[in-house]
Amino acid sequence: MASTTGKNRSILAGLVAPVTETPTVERGAPATERLSTRLTGLARVTSGDVKEKTLKLVDPARCRMWSRHNRRYDLLNEASCADLLESLRSQGEQEFPAIVRRVEDDPAFDYEVISGARRHWSVSYLRNVEHREIRYLIEERELTDEQAFRLADVENRARQDISDYERALDYRHAVETFYGGVAQRMAERLEVPKAWLSRFLDLGKLPTDVVEAFGDPRQLKERHARTLKPLLADDASRPKVMAEAKRLAGVQAAAVASGKGLLDPAKVVTLLVKASAAPASAKKPTAKGVMNVTNEAGATLFTLARKGAKRVVLELSLDAEASNADFQAAFARELDRVRPKA
Length: 342
What we know:
Radius of gyration: 29 Å
Number of helices: 13
Number of domains: 5
Strand content: 5-15%
CATH topology of the largest domain: Conserved hypothetical protein from pyrococcus furiosus pfu- 392566-001, ParB domain
Order of helices and strands: HHEEHEEHEHHHHHHHHEEEEH
């Protein structure tokens, strides 16, 4: 009888072993308690209360990012993944699985990551840089692209480590790809207010020059787009905002190159708003057909002289007390003025 009971217990253990949500029991618990716990877990699966999941540990090099993953993988680094790296080092393993689907079109990869880019980057870093024996924990699912988008959105919507701009780009692409460009339809599928979604779609539509004015796109917030949207929609203020954005982009690039910190996002917004209210350019007539272009301080930057209907001659004032950014911003404004259709 004892032999038969032991055999039955082994069969039951084999049946319920894959159930990941079964409550854990301490190794020293009585055999009857272990059997009871497993039977309870099996009953929960049978009733539908618990879904069976099969998790795998794999080499992250065999996993690629889904082309529509909503996180900028190229921007991940030790700083942005510091909390996750510390957790992996202390625990020696990944706590939550990444969501993946099978790859059929590329022999170099077995899976593509739908949700779990930071986990993938961190595990790869620990393996390749610190030479730790750690593997990537995944859960494989069968998903359409639209299902993958919604799953990734739910996974990341409440996270603080994914930026508004990354999410906005994801939404902008998804509304056209999956929902025929209809924001209301997409909002219903995501179960979010249309007004909330529209604000992120506006953020995703910001011109490239404006995005680059912030230096790091992850600094852009949905509230920034709300402030800038009416200025960019106005024919009078848009050229001035765009010119200032180009100037600020140069300032930010120079700061990165020299190792200095980027301008605070709030400062960037303030400067863009201020530029929208400034005169398009300070121009003083000199000789007939010649315009004198100055910066805000009144320093002459260059003159513009018409030479027929299709030519303008520009003469730079190289000794002007002004920065190169002043010249660039003024030139951009004047170019937009003399070649509006271009």
